[in-house]
Design brief:
Keywords: Ribonucleoprotein, Ribosomal protein. This protein is α+β, with helices and mostly antiparallel strands. It has six helices and three strands, in the order αααβααβαβ. It folds into two domains: 38 residues, no CATH class; 66 residues, Ribosomal Protein L30, Chain: A, CATH 3.30.1390. Helix content is 58%, strand content 14%.
Length: 126
């Protein structure tokens, strides 16, 4: 069978890149950026944007991580916060860690966290 030759010899390009100096590679990257109107820094910018998005979070979940020593008081607060019945509220406290409320603003989440911690619960905002 006859071997089909590609227009680009990938193995040769890789071999040439391995032999190139850092300065030559830097010049190559700049030339590719200019020729094709792209930026090699784009993945870094995307990662930075994702980190900024996480820092500027506007929706929080209140997670009960431990019911603490005064479980009865914590169950009452969970019942009031969630509107659940006594049995369901007890199930959330006994099943800790469990999410008590989802999608709250930062102020609402911190308010619920304070109420739960006031009666001895351990709470995490996610």
């Amino acid at each position: 069978m006859e071997e089909i030759k590609m227009a680009l010899d990938t193995e040769k390009i890789i071999a040439d890149l391995k032999e190139a100096s850092i300065l030559e590679l830097n010049d190559l990257v700049k030339a590719i950026e200019e020729e094709f109107g792209v930026s090699a820094a784009a993945p870094v910018a995307v990662a930075g944007a994702a980190a900024d998005g996480a820092a500027a979070k506007d929706s929080f979940d209140v997670e009960l991580t431990d019911g603490g020593a005064s479980k009865v008081k914590v169950i009452k607060v969970v019942k009031d916060i969630t509107g659940l019945g006594l049995k369901d509220a007890k199930g959330l406290v006994d099943g800790a860690p469990s999410v008590i409320k989802e999608g709250l603003s930062k102020d609402e989440a911190e308010e619920l966290q304070a109420k739960l911690e006031e009666v001895g619960a351990k709470v995490t905002l996610k």
